[in-house]
Design brief:
This protein is an all-beta fold. The chain has one helix and 40 strands. Strands 30, 33, 36, 38, 39 and 40 form a six-stranded antiparallel sheet that branches. It has a four-stranded antiparallel sheet with strand order 1-37-32-31, with no helix packed on it. A four-stranded antiparallel sheet has the order 2-29-28-27, with no helix packed on it. It is globular.
C-alpha cells in the first residue's frame, strides 16, 4: 500500500488518549424499526454502524396461539429475517459485533413449555448452531469484535447451567464460581473479561466477573443479596442490578477495587437495572414498578445521573420507551417502545454535536477480529478531537486515511472509503490492539464541510495482508 504521511496533518495530532463521555442534554432521532409483518418487535443488540438486531413477529404464523417470532437484522431502513435452525419454531438475535456477526438462539416450544433454546450464530447470511454439552441446549448472549461469544449451556452430567464461551468453533466451560451450583455469562469485553451471574438452588443471584478466574462482585459475598451483572466495558466497568437496603433491586455499577454504585430508580418506580455500558461509561436499562401489568421506562445513566430516556425524545413522538438494551460508542441506543399497545423495536440515533461521527461500515477483519475506528469531538476551530483505533493486530503498523470525498474503492479485497487526500503513518498499534491520536482541530476549513476517515493495518492474517477499520464521516462545525 503506497501511502505517504503528510506533515501538515501529522503535526496536527498529539500522542495521548482522551475519553469523552456524552454531555448532559443529549438528543436523539426516534426511528421505528417496524416488524416482519406481525404485530410486535423488540431491539436487543446494536453495533457502531447502527445495525440493530432483536426479534420480530412474522405475518400469518401462530404457534400455540401466539405470533411466531424471528431474529432480525435492521440497517439503514431495512429489516431482514435471519431465519432459524431446521425443526425450530422461532429465533431471537441478542447481539451483533462491528464485523456484523450476530448471535442469539433458535427455539422450540417456548410458548407451550419451558422450551428448547439452541445457541445460534448468523454470519454473512449463513446460520449455524453453536456446539453444546451434548443435549442441544445453550444460549448465546454477547459477542465481542474478536468473535468471542459468551452465554451458557446445560451441563448434562449434572443438569446445570454453565457459563461458557465459544471461540474458533469450540465451546469452553468457564468453570465454577466459588460455591455456586449454576452460572451464566451475559457480557464480554474486547480483552475477554466476562460478566454474568451465579446462584444456588432457591438462593438469590450473585453478580460475577471472569478474568482468568471467577470473582463475585455483588450478592451474598457482599453486604446485600441478589445481584446480576449484564455487561462489562474495556475499562472493567460492569452494570446490572443489585438489591440494596430498601430490599428492592436497583440499577447497579461495579468496578474493580471500588464500592458498588447504587444508580437507583426513577421517581415512583421501585426496581431498576442496567443492561449495557459503553467505553465512555454511559449505560442504559430500565426502571419499573414490578406490578402486573408492568410499568417500565427506559433509562440512561450518564454524568452520575439516572435519567428517563422518554424525556429526551422529540415532542412529536407518540410512544413510551419501555427499555433500552444497548448503547454503542457513538451514543446511539437500541430500545423497545410501546406503540398502540404493542412492543416495537426502535433506534435512538444521537443527533447532538458529539454524536455526528457517522459510521459507514466496510471494516475488514483478520484472524484477531474486526478493527474499529471511533471518532470523538467537534470539528470546530480549536476544538479537541480524538481518533482511536481498537481491536487491531497488536504491534502492527497502521495508516490513518483522511479524505474529502467518499470513493468506496475496492482495495486489497476490502473497501477504501475515503479519497486518500491526507494520510498519517505508520502508526504503531499497542499491545492492546489500539492507537489513539488526539489534537485540536485547525482553523481554516468552512463549516458544513464533509470529511471521511478510515485506518488500514498491515496484518498478514487479513485478505491480501491487510485489515481495515470501518469508515467514518464527520462534518466540520
Amino acid at each position: 500500500m503506497q501511502i505517504q504521511s503528510k506533515a501538515s496533518l501529522s503535526a496536527l495530532f498529539l500522542a495521548g488518549a482522551t475519553s469523552l463521555a456524552a454531555a448532559g442534554g443529549s438528543s436523539y432521532e426516534y426511528i421505528d424499526l417496524g416488524t416482519l409483518g406481525g404485530p410486535a418487535s423488540a431491539a436487543f443488540g446494536l453495533n457502531d454502524a447502527r445495525q440493530v438486531v432483536g426479534w420480530a413477529h412474522i405475518d400469518n404464523c401462530l404457534v400455540d396461539g401466539a405470533p411466531c417470532r424471528r431474529a432480525f437484522l435492521w440497517h439503514d431502513g431495512s429489516m431482514v429475517d435471519l431465519g432459524l435452525l431446521a425443526g425450530d419454531e422461532g429465533s431471537f438475535a441478542r447481539a451483533i459485533n462491528n464485523g456484523g456477526l450476530v448471535v442469539g438462539t433458535s427455539e422450540l416450544d417456548v410458548v407451550a413449555a419451558s422450551g428448547t433454546f439452541r445457541g445460534t450464530v448468523w454470519d454473512g447470511g449463513a446460520i449455524a448452531q453453536l456446539p453444546d454439552f451434548g443435549d442441544g441446549r445453550s444460549f448465546a448472549h454477547d459477542v465481542n469484535d474478536a468473535g468471542t461469544i459468551v452465554g451458557h449451556a446445560v451441563d448434562q452430567t449434572v443438569i446445570r447451567d454453565r457459563a461458557v464461551s465459544w471461540t474458533g468453533g469450540s465451546i469452553h466451560n468457564l468453570g465454577d464460581t466459588e460455591e455456586h451450583s449454576y452460572n451464566r455469562a451475559f457480557g464480554v469485553n474486547e480483552s475477554g473479561q466476562v460478566a454474568g451471574w451465579a446462584w444456588n438452588l432457591f438462593q438469590p443471584n450473585d453478580a460475577i466477573v471472569y478474568d482468568g478466574a471467577w470473582f463475585t462482585v455483588g450478592g451474598i459475598d457482599g453486604p446485600f443479596q441478589n445481584a446480576e451483572a449484564s455487561d462489562i466495558n474495556d475499562s472493567g466497568v460492569m452494570v446490572g442490578l443489585q438489591a440494596f437496603p430498601s430490599g428492592d433491586w436497583h440499577a447497579a455499577i461495579w468496578s474493580f477495587g471500588n464500592p458498588t454504585i447504587d444508580a437507583g430508580t426513577l421517581p415512583g418506580l421501585a426496581y431498576g437495572e442496567l443492561y449495557d455500558v459503553n467505553e465512555a461509561g454511559v449505560a442504559v436499562g430500565r426502571s419499573y414498578a414490578g406490578t402486573i401489568p408492568e410499568v417500565s421506562r427506559a433509562v440512561i445513566w450518564e454524568n452520575g445521573e439516572l435519567k428517563d430516556l422518554n424525556d429526551l425524545l422529540p415532542a412529536e413522538v407518540d410512544a413510551v420507551l419501555w427499555e433500552a438494551r444497548e448503547i454503542n460508542e457513538n451514543g446511539d441506543i437500541a430500545a423497545t417502545a410501546v406503540v398502540d399497545g404493542f412492543f416495537r423495536a426502535v433506534l435512538l440515533a444521537r443527533t447532538d454535536a458529539e454524536a455526528t461521527w457517522e459510521p459507514l461500515g466496510h471494516a475488514m477483519a483478520g484472524d484477531g477480529g474486526t478493527p474499529t475506528l471511533i471518532g470523538e469531538g467537534d470539528l470546530a476551530p480549536g476544538a479537541p478531537i480524538t481518533v482511536r483505533v481498537k481491536n487491531a493486530l497488536p504491534g502492527a503498523s497502521a495508516w490513518l486515511v483522511l479524505g474529502f470525498n467518499e470513493i468506496d474503492l475496492p482495495l486489497f479485497l476490502g473497501t477504501l472509503v475515503p479519497t486518500p487526500d491526507i494520510t498519517v503513518g505508520p502508526l504503531a498499534i499497542d499491545g492492546n490492539g489500539e492507537h489513539t491520536l488526539a489534537a485540536n482541530w485547525p482553523a481554516g476549513l468552512p463549516a458544513g464541510f464533509s470529511t471521511w476517515w478510515q485506518t488500514w493495518i498491515f496484518d498478514t492474517s487479513g485478505p491480501a495482508d491487510w485489515t481495515a477499520t470501518n469508515g467514518l464521516r464527520r462534518v466540520t462545525e
